[in-house]
Amino acid sequence: MRYQISGKQIDIGEALQTHVKAELGEVVEKYAQRPTDAVIVFSKAAHEFVCEATIHLSTGLNASAKGSASEVYAAFEACREKMDKQLRRHKRRLRDHHHKRTAPVEFDGGSSYILAPTDEGDESQAISDQPIVIAEMETKIPSITVGEAVMQMELAGQKMLVFRNEGHGGVNVVYRRDDGNIGWIDPRNSK
Q1: What's the structural domain count of the chain?
Q2: Cα-Cα-Cα-Cα dihedral of 8, 151, 83, 97, to 10°?
Q3: Beta carbons of 164 and 171 less than 8 angstroms apart
């Protein structure tokens, strides 16, 4: 597994890098099969150190965790514990569903655009009052099942996930509702 360990405006020593590789490698070997790489970023926010880790699995799914503490090693340990918990839950779900993906997840591209306001509409409203809609970044859209989309959303700690449904090839959305449940938007079923 490839590791990319870096610090945002702080120096990361060899001892910390060795510790991260050993501890995170142990967690990944325990729960994940064939991880491809891991990105670990340390930063400092006020008086606390923050550790953010993302592990890319060979199935195309990503697991993310974040930990913070007053010491850099303690911040990593908090992050490692969260990653351990996420990967353990992921492995349990895979085992419970008896679903084994034989091929890696396919990704489509998603572009970002800046949409400028138009002159059409109510003339009493100034053009400067109309907001500019901006897509923040380009992203890859995975081609996965609904269950895998929910799992990916929870692993990455996201509030929503856009994906291409493997069942029919249409674009779908899963999201976390305010009541804690999962919502699923499938435009194909809205006819």
Answers
A1: 2
A2: -160
A3: yes
